[in-house]
Write a structure and sequence with these properties.
InterPro entries: MFS_dom, MFS_sugar_transport-like, MFS_trans_sf, Myo-inositol_Transporter, Sugar/inositol_transpt, Sugar_transporter_CS. This protein is mainly α. The chain has helices spanning 9-23, 25-58, 60-64, 66-94, 96-115, 120-147, 154-178, 185-191, 194-205, 211-216, 220-230, 233-254, 261-266, 268-286, 289-302, 308-332, 338-365, 372-376, 384-387, 397-401, 421-429, 435-443, 456-464, 479-493, 500-507, 514-542, 545-566, 575-584, 598-605; strands spanning 408-412, 450-453, 468-470. It folds into three domains: 11-206, Up-down Bundle (Growth Hormone, Chain: A), CATH 1.20.1250; 269-367 and 492-583, Up-down Bundle (Growth Hormone, Chain: A); 381-398 and 408-415 and 437-475, no CATH class. The chain has a three-stranded antiparallel β-sheet with strand order 2-1-3. Helix 4 runs antiparallel to helix 26, helix 15 packs antiparallel against helix 16 (308-332) and helix 17 (338-365) packs antiparallel against helix 24.
Length: 606
């Protein structure tokens, strides 16, 4: 019976997904070709985090102005908002395949413009073009995969899009590291993004349109040919009949009336779907994921790691964990279900953000002091604000970095005379056993440093004496805990909140409204992304990194409550059955109890 999930179906979904490699490679070809849109999405998210470190070195105006840094990051997001909004209409008008082809073209143009940009203004123009492509691809790729997937393994296949997003982020960090010493650094990092766009453009030219969209447009014979390639022979006729009935019912119900916002809100199933879908997309961004992905190396530097290369290398760990988490999602999404995975994810995210807030509070409140003797060693380059301070003895590293007329940096030795790596690790392992003694010993490693003018000449002088140069954050004995917090955050976020919102949005809307509603949800995601990306660095400067992460933690708790109340479980249901569920669904607080399917309720009533 349609909509009833038989015992063992979700348990074997993961295995069935991978058995397609030899049973039906055509379905995997569709999924992975469309999923390259996710790779583009992920690559752009990750690559700018590393490229920004070197863009600041090349363009001093970018280094001096936080707003300009945020603009370079967030203008791609602004473009994605427009791309997602237009993409929803384009999906319904011209089809999923055409929308992906246009997205690839825009992304390729943007990559070329960025790689050749002679100034920040043209770089931002390139970022807008890339954003248009990413916005279109972000909502079209999972939609195409969802409509070309058998219901039993739809979640696992759509999760491949999430895997390719995180895989793209991991690839971007590898590319960033590969070009750290190459001439042009950031130009190579940004320009290489055009290659996967070109690859997907070629692959999509060889693939068909979504069969569900073809049915909607009356091109039934074309759709049937594709469905027969996707479904086993014993299932395909039933799927064709179900799809045909669903489309005919929509046409009878809606007539030829045009879709508008009032019609969407007046339709119960669409309204309930939009609340769940848009809400998930907003919370995905407001729990702070893209602050971690866009600014991961910067966050690592705020935790006290000075070197650009070290920051990129440590950020690679978080990107790797993100990719690993998306693989975990493929396994659990059809076994555990969307809703439970979301709840586990948000609970862990809230805990991780609380840890990060505490770590950054300790980092900023226990930074090493500024030494008059160390500063006088660089007498010609002393920070003016420090020289004119009424009480320079009270200055620490954080106060030095906040000096702004002009900007100043902190030059310090990495450790004290006892520089043994083994002793450092040993002391850190004792933190939980002898916290007072170990805290005192570790403080000995944070030697006072010099507060100096921030420019390339002073930076080189500092490095020439085997010292470290800090401009973003201060050396701290708690820096390694910040890395633990970031790792935990990614481990919890990626399998649930990283992929489930896109999966839910690809399957929760009626066919007639799917493109438009998917566009609305994707637009909401990108608007939220823009707000977070444009405000993160400013927030850290205004209220501190600790309070910023604490705000994200509170939002995570609110998001957890939202999922409990508003998000239905769609695991294993054919797309047509989900519409029936939304029609009869009420608020479901006891999420751990299995809710009855619509058809089960009907049978009981009879």
């Amino acid at each position: 019976m349609e909509g009833v999930v038989h015992t063992g179906t979700d348990a074997s979904a993961f295995k069935e997904c991978f058995s397609l490699t030899w049973k039906n490679p055509y379905v995997l070809r569709l999924a992975f070709s469309a999923g390259i849109g996710g790779l583009l999405f992920g690559y752009d998210t990750g690559v700018i985090s590393g490229a920004l470190l070197y863009i600041r070195d090349d363009f001093k105006s970018v280094d001096r102005q936080t707003v300009l840094q945020e603009s370079i990051v967030s203008m791609a997001v602004a473009g994605a908002i427009i791309g997602a909004a237009v993409g929803g209409w384009m999906n319904d008008r011209f089809g999923r395949r055409m929308a992906i082809l246009i997205a690839d073209f825009l992304f390729f143009i943007g990559a070329v413009v960025m790689a050749s940009a002679p100034n920040p203004a043209l770089l931002i123009v390139g970022r807008v073009f890339v954003g248009l492509g990413v916005g279109m691809a972000s909502m079209t790729s999972p939609l195409y995969i969802s409509e070309a997937s058998p219901a039993k393994i739809r979640g696992a296949l759509v999760s491949t899009n999430g895997f390719l997003i995180t895989g793209g982020q991991f690839l971007s960090y590898l590319i960033n590291l590969a070009f750290t010493n190459a001439p042009g650094t950031w130009r190579w990092m940004l320009g290489i993004a055009g290659l996967p766009a070109l690859l997907q453009f070629i692959l999509m030219l060889l693939l068909p349109e979504s069969p569900r969209w073809l049915f909607r447009k009356g091109r039934e014979e074309e759709a049937k040919v594709i469905l027969r390639k996707i479904y086993p022979a014993n299932d395909v006729e039933k799927e064709i009949q179900d799809l045909k009935e669903s489309v005919e019912a929509e046409i009878r119900e809606e007539g030829s009336a045009k879709i508008n916002m009032m019609k969407l809100l007046k339709t119960k199933t669409v309204r309930r779907g939009l609340i769940a879908g848009v809400g998930l997309q907003v919370f995905q961004q407001f729990v702070g994921i893209n602050t971690v992905m866009y600014y991961s190396p910067t966050i690592v530097q705020l935790a006290g790691f000075a070197s650009n290369k070290t920051a990129l290398l440590l950020s690679l760990v978080t990107a790797g964990l993100n990719a690993l988490g998306s693989i975990v999602s493929i396994y659990f999404i059809d076994r555990t279900g969307r809703k439970k995975l979301l709840l586990i994810s948000l609970f862990g995210v809230a805990i991780s953000l609380g840890l990060l807030a505490g770590v950054f509070h300790e980092t900023t409140s226990h930074s090493p002091m500024v030494s008059r003797i160390q500063t006088s060693h660089f007498s010609n380059y002393t920070c003016p604000d420090y020289s004119s301070a009424t009480n320079p003895g009270a200055w620490d590293c954080m106060k030095c970095l906040k000096a702004s007329s002009p900007d100043c940096g902190f030059c310090a030795s990495p450790t004290d005379k006892v520089k043994s790596h083994d002793i450092s690790i040993f002391l850190q392992s004792l933190v939980f056993v002898f916290p007072s003694l170990t805290g005192f010993l570790l403080l000995l490693q944070l030697l006072p440093g010099a507060c100096l003018l921030s420019n390339d000449t002073v930076k080189d002088l500092c490095h020439d004496e085997s010292r470290l140069w800090y401009t973003r954050g201060c050396p701290s004995k708690y820096g390694w805990l910040a890395l633990v917090g970031l790792a935990l955050y990614i481990i919890f976020f990626s399998p649930g909140m990283g992929t489930a919102p896109w999966i839910v949005n690809s399957e929760i809307y009626p066919l007639r409204f799917r493109g438009v509603c998917g566009g609305i949800a994707a637009t909401a995601n990108w608007i939220s992304n823009l707000i977070v990306a444009q405000s993160f660095l400013s927030l850290t400067e205004a209220i501190g990194t600790s309070w910023t992460f604490l705000i994200f933690g509170v939002i995570s708790v609110v998001g957890l409550l939202f999922v409990i109340v508003y998000v239905p479980e769609t695991k294993g249901l054919p797309i047509e059955e989900i519409e029936k569920m939304l029609e009869t669904r009420s608020l479901h607080f006891r999420f751990w109890e299995k809710s009855q399917k619509p058809q089960e309720k009907k049978s009981q009533a009879v």
